[in-house]
Amino acid sequence: MKKIITAVIAAVTLLSCTGCSLKKDSSDTDNKQKTSALKVGNPVVPEIEKEVIWETDRIRVSTEFFKRAETGLKIKIENKSNTDLELSLSDPYVHVNGFTMTDFLSANVPAGETLFETISFNNQCIRDADIDEIHCAEFVLEAEYDGNFKDKEKSDTIIVGDKSDEWRKNDDAPDGQLLWDSDGIKIISLGFSGEIIPVLSVYIENNTGKEIDAHLTWADVNGLDVNLLSKSLHGYIQNGKKRICQYDMDEIMEESGEDSLRVFGLNFDIDIGEDDPLRTRYLNIKDISGYTYKPSETTTEKEED
Fold first, then answer.
1. Domain count of the fold of the chain
2. Angle at CA 22, nearest 5°, toward 21 and 26?
3. Which domain-ending residue is among 122, 152, 169?
4. 3-state secondary structure of 83
């Protein structure tokens, strides 16, 4: 069941959704490599030393290197126990440069054996967050032994890459329309994008001191209230982290029954820890020129019926 849930979460991420400097002979070489990386859409990655990042009596996990193409972190898993184990992320999140990226890891390691695996960083999430250089990755690992969900070990938060706060000094929020800046939460509309699946990208930053769930519950389409509760458009963000959430515009328009978009707004119900939800009311998107609704043939047929 755990693997099925993990796979579903990973599939949903496709739509949703580390910092040591590279050692080079000259700044020119470094600049050329960075420019080249940006052209192909892959971020510059730091060079790291191989080190043990988690070890118990039964398991040892160490770093190998950051991968640039198919971005991620290569790790080495040594099963020191006499039973099989499954190594996974404790929750389906990896934080890259502070951005929450829903992802997954599922590595089955037989008793006494060693396996190399990659903690992947969703490339679409990397692009959405406009990350051109990885400074650090943060995550929590969990090992389950012999398929027994009661026999687990969990690591502390692991940080690989730049553990200092130097890179954060220039880590400003992206440009866009500020929709909300209150109660430790900042929400910014980054506009519309995507040709095959048009989406609205929204930046959400959490400094409440608690984990939040920024749940998109309603949309205002041309003055009509559109109920999105059944869509489960959740955005879980840990304290001090941020996330790019993407919302399928065609799906919202189909739900509204409207044939064009003239006015658009978003309503979030935000759970802050165990506190009562914070409701933003409608946050109006001022510039909707970047999106044109093109009803699908299925939608048109339903309207004719």
1. 2
2. 110
3. 169
4. coil
Taking the CA atoms of 203, 208, 211 and 213 in sequence, report the sign of the dihedral they define.
negative
For the stretch 228-241, pLDDT in tens is 999 999 999 999 99
pLDDT in tens, 111-158: 999 999 999 888 788 888 888 899 999 999 999 999 888 899 999 999
* 252: helix, strand or coil: helix
Q: Is 91 helix (H, G, I), strand (E, B) or coil?
A: coil
Contact 48, 66 (CB under 8 A): yes
Residue 158's alpha-carbon distances to 94, 141, 142, in angstroms, are: 10, 8, 12
CA distance 27 to 90: 39
Sign for the pseudo-dihedral over CA of 8, 146, 83, 110: negative
Strands 199-206 and 185-193: what pairing?
antiparallel
Question: 192 and 161 share a domain?
Answer: no
Q: What's this model's pTM, rounded to 2 decimal places?
A: 0.78
285: closest CA among 304, 260, 267? 267
Task: Output DSSP code: residue 132.
Answer: S
% of residues, the chain, pLDDT over 90: 61
Cβ(259)–Cβ(293) below 8 Å: yes
CATH code assigned at 295: 2.60.40
Whether 286 and 190 have beta carbons less than 8 Å apart is answered as: no
pLDDT band at 299 (very low <50, low <70, confident <90, very high): low
